[in-house]
Amino acid sequence: MIRAILLIALVPAVVYGNVGRACTGGRPLSTNVNILGCTAAPCDLVRGQDVIAYIDFTTDRAVTTMRTVPTATALGITAPYPLPAEFADTCAWLEGSSCPLSANEDVTYRLTIPVLPIYPLVSLSIEIDIVDENDQSVTCFVVDAQVVSAN
């Protein structure tokens, strides 16, 4: 019986793992970052597929609007990792909540990142900074990843 309870308790930890790490500059770290299909970094980003991540964070102030600003670093080069407009609107993808947000509100955000078939097979770090209407960071995390082919 105890083995069954322990197994049930550990299965979510095996399927999903917090793969995010802190951004530089003292920006607020997300409480938890779960990328579907990834239990430990580096996470595989499969060409031609979307990456789905669930980000939990707590606001430290009232927020009216938010947008997601990804940046990728590969081979020593850092560049914007543009999201389609519909995915960059963070407020549109909150689960069980909506903007505006109150201070100290716990939030879950479903992030979708398209991985285009033309992306090179490369290891990279992706920084996800969620900023408010004043371009101030609400939460930020970095995940190590690698672009892989679908086969």
Describe the structure in your own words.
This protein is mainly beta and 151 residues long. The protein has one domain: Immunoglobulin-like. The protein is built from two helices and nine strands, in the order αβββββαββββ. The strands form two sheets. The chain has a five-stranded mixed β-sheet with strand order 2-9-8-4-5, with no helix packed on it. Strands 1-3-7-6 form a four-stranded antiparallel β-sheet, with no helix packed on it. The N and C termini lie far apart (41 Å). Belongs to the NPC2 family. Keywords: Disulfide bond, Secreted, Signal. Pfam families: E1_DerP2_DerF2. One of its GO terms (cellular component) is extracellular region.
Question: What structural keywords apply?
Answer:
151 residues, mainly beta, five-stranded mixed sheet, 9 strands, disordered N terminus
What is this entry, summarized?
The chain is mainly beta and 151 residues long. It has helices spanning 2-15, 85-88; strands spanning 32-35, 43-46, 50-58, 66-74, 77-80, 94-95, 106-114, 123-132, 137-148.
List the topology elements:
Blueprint: H1 2-15, E1 32-35, E2 43-46, E3 50-58, E4 66-74, E5 77-80, H2 85-88, E6 94-95, E7 106-114, E8 123-132, E9 137-148
Parallel strand pairs: 2-9
Antiparallel strand pairs: 1-3, 3-7, 4-5, 4-8, 6-7, 8-9
Subcellular location: Secreted
Family: Belongs to the NPC2 family.
InterPro entries: Ig_E-set (IPR014756), ML_dom (IPR003172), ML_Npc2-like (IPR033916), NPC2-like (IPR039670)
